[in-house]
Design brief:
- By secondary structure, the protein is mainly α.
- It has a single domain, classed as Winged helix-like DNA-binding domain superfamily/Winged helix DNA-binding domain (Arc Repressor Mutant, subunit A, Orthogonal Bundle), CATH 1.10.10.
- Helices cover 39% and strands 7% of the residues.
- It has helices at 7-16, 26-32, 39-48, 77-84, 97-100, 104-107, and strands at residues 24-25, 59-60, 89-90, 93-94.
- Strand 3 (89-90) and strand 4 (93-94) form a beta hairpin.
- Helix 1 packs across helix 3 and helix 2 (26-32) crosses helix 3 (39-48).
- The protein starts with 6 loop residues before the first helix and ends with a helix.
- It binds a DNA duplex (13 and 13 nucleotides) through helix 2, helix 3 and strand 2.
DNA sequence: CTCTTGACTGAGG
DNA sequence: GCCTCAGCCAAGA
């Protein structure tokens, strides 16, 4: 957290700070890190985070769609993880997204 | 070095 | 609300 050697490391830390039953977007993380235009890099970091303890399933795109579910093992693993936290997911899209949305800019400011 | 791909986003029609 | 286009930057071929 302190060093923040790599952009990726920051992404991992923020992702780990996401509270239970909450979700955030790639852009929110990127913006919090000062790279608002680098949302793709957040996604790339998540891809590299495979095998780590990063709750990537809590990170979705700005629409609340599980765009990254394809990167998980099963076809519905990501959805199951979210549902396990009380999040309702229909057709790969999070319901009440705005309600459970966790903005690091507001929560961590 | 150049080109393509990608877990994205905002603006414009 | 939807679709399309452009910008963004890192990694791999």
């Amino acid at each position: 957290m302190e060093d923040s050697k790599n952009f990726f490391d920051k992404v991992y830390e923020v992702a780990r700070l996401i509270p239970f039953g909450r979700v955030t977007s790639y852009g929110a993380i990127a913006k919090y890190l000062g790279a608002a235009r680098s949302a793709r890099m957040v996604g790339w970091a998540m891809n590299n985070s495979s095998g780590k303890e990063v709750p990537a399933h809590r990170v979705v795109n700005r629409k609340g769609i599980l765009t990254g579910k394809h990167h998980f093992e099963g076809t519905n693993l990501m959805q199951q993880l979210l549902e396990s936290e009380g999040i309702v997911v229909i057709e790969n899209q999070i319901q009440d997204f705005e309600t459970i949305f966790w903005d690091p800019m507001k929560e961590l400011s």
